[in-house]
Design goal:
Order of helices and strands of chain B: HHHHHHHHHHEHEHHEHEHEEEH
Helix content of chain B: 55-70%
Strand content of chain B: 5-15%
Strand order of the largest sheet of chain B: 1-7-6-5-2-3-4
Number of strands of chain A: 0
Helix content of chain A: over 70%
Shape of chain B: elongated
Distance between the termini of chain A: 45 Å
Structural class of chain B: alpha/beta
Shape of chain A: flat
Oligomer: heterodimer
Radius of gyration of chain B: 26 Å
Largest sheet of chain B: 7 strands, parallel
């Protein structure tokens, strides 16, 4: 799938950093832990890469690597989003609101 | 690209846009949960689209499907279990673990790509260079994050582990990264270069994090978070997937910003930290104005309770000691009692209160503290002057007024202006030093009273005593 020229890839790379800095500097310190675990789940997109290599694998070595990458990636995505949600659920504006577990 | 591949890549673009929007919604506690849900939904759609793409391309074997499905299910189950069961105090370990697996997966993708290429020797620098970088960054993150998680969990010694030649090794290893990367780019089919580079990177992750003390963990975790993001972006270069580049760099930006914030809050330069200043820095104990114990004023629970009950504004200053004593619920209960009595209560949270950025806020939120009472340093500092009582629990160096003067270990460190409050109460077991190893002038200030006790026990006693006054 070599369809991406280097310049385009680097353009995307640079612009993403700038967008990231812009968006993330607005997050209050109160939410830095959920931000970190939330951005953690965003890099779980690596699971898509793992799926793509699983699709191209035809040797035992390839399968083993793809399997490990799948386990890691899926753990990253699912765990990251669930734990972030669990944390954010606890942030209430009023003390009266009871958290439902 | 055919139609399906095109469609899938439009889905990826939409997913990346949703990640940005999701992070944008994180700018307020009210909308943050929606942001996370949006991001998670977009991720689910992207994964579904990838399944479609893989099925459509038809190159996948039956075993490949099995690998994909079983790996995905096992990983998802492990992630779900960890996320559901983890205690909020153990959050830094979990985030570290997710950093490790994310970096590990990214490194494996590059290893696989270089091993599986039909004509590896023909791979240009276009693939081999990001591939090598992916392996280095991903492997360093993998082993480094595992060690960090082990230290936080207490499996690996939390104290700085230093062995002879460690510094030299930490200089030699990065040099060998450059050599290994150049080798791999020149000869992408060289297995020796590939495995050698991966092994050196794994080793470096260990030797980089081992010498770091527990109190420096917020910086380390944020830095490793940035590394993982970069590794994933490099995997995006290897696989020609812009979605991975965008997502990876968003995370990298986030990790980078947090690293800077944490380093500033701890009075360290990032450069100093990266070039082996980790955990050592300026923490050498310096002998400063001694004889402090003689001048402090010791208070009982009743003394403190009277002050709190008759105050109109109280600011709590929680530090890591509070979390270590598992006393955040007691503090939350005490605050609720005072709030119900009409006292204006807020929490002054220093950026490094906790074991990762923002950790203390999560611990307090879990103890049912409303986020409207959680104040950041810059927001709360002007409020201390109006506070009748500032109650310090488990925080030390970040309240030390000496930071405003030059010539000591914490000079220039941003602190909470606790000494500006009308009166100060410190709950502390002894006059022991904080991480910086120096006396805290706040304790000898005439308006400060010390309540010598364990945080959990002390707060329970205060709650009972305040209950009698306001009951």
């Amino acid at each position: 799938m070599n369809n991406l020229d280097l310049l385009t890839a680097i353009t995307v790379f640079v612009l993403s950093v700038l967008v990231g800095i812009e968006v993330i500097s607005k997050v209050p310190a109160t939410l830095h832990t959920p931000l970190m675990s939330g951005s953690n789940s965003v890099h779980g997109i690596v699971v898509i890469g793992a799926m793509l290599i699983a699709a191209e694998s035809h040797t035992w070595l390839g399968y083993t690597l793809a399997f490990a990458a799948m386990v890691f990636g899926a753990m990253n995505v699912v765990g990251g989003y669930v734990v972030t949600d669990r944390m954010l659920e606890m942030f209430k504006a009023r003390p009266g609101e009871k958290k439902e577990v | 690209m055919d139609t399906v591949s095109n469609a899938v890549h439009y889905v990826f673009l939409a997913t990346a846009a949703c990640f940005v929007l999701g992070l944008h919604l994180m700018n307020h506690p009210r909308t943050a949960r929606r942001g996370n849900t949006l991001s998670a939904g977009a991720m689910a759609v992207a994964i579904a689209a990838t399944v479609w793409l893989v099925a459509h391309e038809g190159t996948i074997s039956t075993t490949g499907w099995l690998v994909l499905a079983s790996g995905g299910l096992i990983g998802a189950a492990l992630g779900l279990y960890a996320a559901r069961e983890v205690r909020m105090t153990a959050m830094p370990q979990l985030v570290s673990l997710f950093n490790a697996v994310g970096g590990g997966a990214a490194a494996l993708i590059a290893v696989n790509d270089l091993l599986q290429a039909d004509h590896p020797a023909a791979l240009g620098a276009r693939v081999a260079l990001p591939g090598a970088l992916d392996i280095v960054i991903g492997a360093v993150t993998f082993s480094g994050s595992l060690i960090a998680a082990g230290k936080l969990q207490g499996i690996v010694s939390g104290a700085p582990v230093v062995f002879p030649g460690a510094r030299l090794l930490n200089v030699l290893l990065p040099v060998s990264f450059v050599a290994g990367t150049v080798w791999l780019v020149m000869a992408p089919d060289s297995r020796a270069a590939l495995y050698g580079l991966a092994a050196v990177a794994l080793l470096f992750g260990v030797t980089m994090v081992l010498p770091i003390g527990g109190a420096d963990m917020p910086v380390v975790i944020a830095l490793l978070n940035a590394f993982t993001g970069s590794a994933v972006a490099m995997a995006g270069f290897v696989l020609d997937e812009t979605a991975l580049i965008i997502a990876g760099m968003l995370v990298s930006a986030s990790g980078g910003i947090l690293t800077k914030l944490m380093a500033d809050a701890m009075n360290r330069s990032i450069a100093g930290i990266v070039i082996g200043g980790f955990g050592t820095g300026d923490s050498a104990p310096t002998a400063v104005t001694g004889g402090a114990t003689a001048q402090v004023r010791s208070l009982s629970a009743d003394d403190v309770a009277i002050q709190l009950a008759y105050a109109s504004k109280v600011v709590f200053v929680p530090g890591y000691g509070l979390a270590a004593a598992q006393a955040q619920h007691e503090l939350g209960d005490l605050a609720k009692l005072l709030t119900d009595h009409g006292v204006d209560v807020s929490y002054a949270v220093h950026p490094v209160a906790g074991r990762m950025p923002g950790h203390m806020n999560v611990l307090l939120a879990e103890a049912n503290v409303p986020y409207t009472q959680l104040k950041e340093m810059d927001e709360v500092n002007p409020e201390f002057a109006q506070a009748d009582v500032a109650l310090v629990v488990g925080a030390n160096d970040v309240t030390n007024p000496m930071a405003r003067r030059p010539g000591n270990a914490i000079s220039g460190m941003p602190i909470l202006d606790v000494d500006k409050a009308r009166s100060v109460v410190v709950i502390k077991r002894s006059m022991g030093h904080g991480y910086a190893g120096i006396d805290n002038e706040l304790y000898t200030d005439p308006k400060t009273g010390m309540f010598f006790t364990d945080a959990k026990k002390g707060l329970s006693e205060l709650k009972a005593a305040v209950g009698e006054f306001v009951g």
